[in-house]
Amino acid sequence: MPLPDPKTLRRALDGYTAVVERQGVARLAELDRWYRDELPALIAARDPAHVTHSELVRLTEWKMARGVWRAPNLVLVRGNDPAAVVETSTTALAWIPHPTAPVSELAKLRGVGPATASAAAAAAAPEIYPFFDELVAAQLPGLGPVSWTLGYYAKYADALRSAARELGGEWTPVLLERALWAHAGGKAGIA
Q: What is this structure's pTM?
């Protein structure tokens, strides 16, 4: 199955915020605005770039609100030592632009798998790292069933990077991921 055509993708991206709001999930719209509009600037303003413990908790809440809520993972994320979060994320983001090292490094934190790690990497470098989402992966040709592994993420991210390059213009892996998520209607499937 090929990706939707560029006009369909543009319409889906333009409708992303509306799809988020129609999910009917408490705090998702607020968390999504923070994740898209504030977190990237917060990370970029730091030298060296990193995420804080509270930001990691909040982006985990965003990820779960947009997808599947896994309370035990959130407990684990909250239990990470704040200094360890800064240290690990500093090391991870220093690996940019390596295709997978930032995600691999961030996944060393408790409760952080490739999807949560990709959310932090995507906020730091949206031109390289897309957020790892099951609904998006299902729309990418040739990937097969989702496997929540670094190897699968590598194929997923590469597919989105390649497709964004082919689309050209303003498209980044993050924008394409958002368009495909909205195209699928989000987790509620109500586009």
A: 0.95
Instruction: Please tell me the distance from the alpha carbon of residue 191 to that of residue 189, in angstroms, as a whole number.
Output: 6
pLDDT tens profile 4-41: 999 999 999 999 999 999 999 999 999 999 999 999 99
Q: Is residue 143 a contact partner of residue 152, using CB atoms and an 8 Å limit? A: yes
Cα 88 to Cα 80: distance, rounded to the nearest angstrom:
11
Tokens read off for 77: 């994320």
DSSP percent split of the chain into helix, strand, coil, nearest 5: 65, 0, 35
**Rounded-to-integer distance, Cα 71 and Cα 10, Å:** 34
Residue 120, token pair as written in the block = 């932090």
Q: Which of 152, 134, 124 is nearest to 70 (CA)?
A: 134
Could you tell me the two tokens for 149? 């592994």
Tell me what the mean pLDDT of segment 28-56 comes to: 98
Element (H, E) at 182: helix 173-183
How does DSSP classify residue 35?
A: I
CA nearest to 115, candidates 73, 148, 156: 148
